[in-house]
Design a protein that fits this description.
This protein is 43% helix and 15% strand. The protein has 8 helices and 7 strands; from the N terminus they run βαβαβαβαβαβααβα. The protein binds nicotinamide-adenine-dinucleotide.
């Protein structure tokens, strides 16, 4: 355990938005447990943040990696326990791990594919919230939980069916749990990214670039750091009275709606 530093667990923290969040929080002085399925990316991140030429400094926090499958209850419980064992506490849980799911007609969607998407996007957020909330309520110190939603959880056209349904669920699950946990001083919020340049978008980035200025008013594709800074705000003291909120980080896509002018 190291001093009174705040401690966060970030699921899906080895890539994209999660990785940018880990980098931001460590830079802000948090100790962070990265909980991700991808061992190689997790190891690389720990190396980058602690190795020679890395970003160590007196005010920076430490980073630890634990291979985690957010669809597995024991695995998620173990990730939260790791934060308490290694760093002595948990103040923030960022339930961010996700998979995109394949586009295709609903008439051809296999039940197995539907359930796979839900097992990560929906079950993963439930399990992360459950075990973080247990630890935070037991400590009496409260805490902050941030769930990664999506533009697809708000708009019908931004993602495949199962992903859109699961992400809509994440946004309202967040509100529901926020109401329940407020008495324990545990805040629960979601961020809904729009089009962000990460591996999940893959070659879709090229398609998104053609939508700039139209579907998306802001003239550039979003970067993982744009979302990470909002997550950092939501886990930190500047958002002390914000709970049950959903913040879109989408370059104005949801604001725009249909364009007639
Ligand atoms: P990414 O592919 O870069 O990162 C996702 C991470 O989740 C990966 O490191 C992956 O290994 C991990 N992961 C996948 N399944 C897991 C599992 N079962 N257990 C643990 N970890 C697992 O993608 P990203 O864009 O950074 O995605 C982060 C979150 O943002 C996801 O929830 C995604 O749905 C959401 N999101 C992304 C965009 C975008 O445009 N990139 C838009 C809206 C929402």
């Amino acid at each position: 355990m190291s001093g009174g530093r705040r401690v966060a667990v970030v699921t899906g923290g080895a890539s994209g938005i999660g990785r940018a969040t880990v980098e931001r929080l460590v830079g802000d002085g948090w100790n962070v447990v990265v909980a991700d399925l991808n061992q190689a990316n997790g190891d690389a991140l720990v190396r980058d943040l602690t190795g020679t030429g890395g970003t160590e400094g007196a005010d920076r926090g430490q980073v630890d990696f634990v291979r985690t499958d957010v669809s597995d209850e024991g695995s998620v419980e173990a990730a939260v326990a790791r934060a308490q064992e290694r760093f002595g506490r948990i103040d923030a849980m960022v339930n961010n791990a996700g998979v995109g799911g394949a586009f295709g007609p609903i008439t051809e969607l296999e039940l197995e594919d539907w359930e796979y998407t839900f097992s990560i996007v929906s079950r993963g957020v439930f399990l992360g919230t459950k075990y973080a909330a247990r630890a935070m309520t037991a400590s009496g110190r409260g805490g902050s939980i941030v769930n990664t939603g999506s533009l697809a959880g708000i708009s019908g056209g931004a993602g495949p069916q199962a992903y859109s349904a699961a992400k809509a669920g994440v946004i309202n699950f967040t509100r529901s749990v926020a109401v329940e946990l407020a008495a324990h001083r545990v805040r629960v919020n979601s961020v809904s990214p729009g089009f962000i340049r990460t591996p999940i978008l893959g070659t879709g980035v090229k398609k998104i670039e053609r939508l700039l200025g139209d579907v998306q008013p802001w003239p550039e594709v979003g970067e993982p750091t744009h979302v990470a800074s909002v997550i950092a705000f939501l886990v930190g003291p500047d958002s002390a009275f914000v709970t049950g909120e959903s913040i879109n980080v989408d370059g104005g896509v949801t604001a725009a709606g249909p364009r007639v002018g």
